[in-house]
Amino acid sequence: METQFLIPIAFFAMVYGIVFLFVRKKERLALIAKGTDPTVFETVPKPPTSLKWGLLLVGFGIGILLGKILTLCTSLDEEPAIFSMICLFGGFGLIIYHILLRRFEVKKNDKIKPE
Length: 115
Prior knowledge:
Elements: H1 6-34, H2 49-73, H3 78-112
Helix pairs in contact: 2-3
């Protein structure tokens, strides 16, 4: 009985989905009737987000480890040392992701270009 609020939400989601599909179909038929290039319908593949999250979390782990080592070897407090290392190595992980993504895009574009 507690899930009765889901019925109106599901109903409106179903109506929205049906309307969206009909409008999309009409738009596509109109573009085809005009003779437009069908590449308009192609979607651009998204970069892998699992690589980004993996590198970010590895950076966090290394940051925690090095922050703890920094705390033990120096006279720094634990909180600032660990927090700064987490931010530093998390940022390094995202920079590495950005560099790898650029290399993958360059390799993909080299394969596409005709010689």
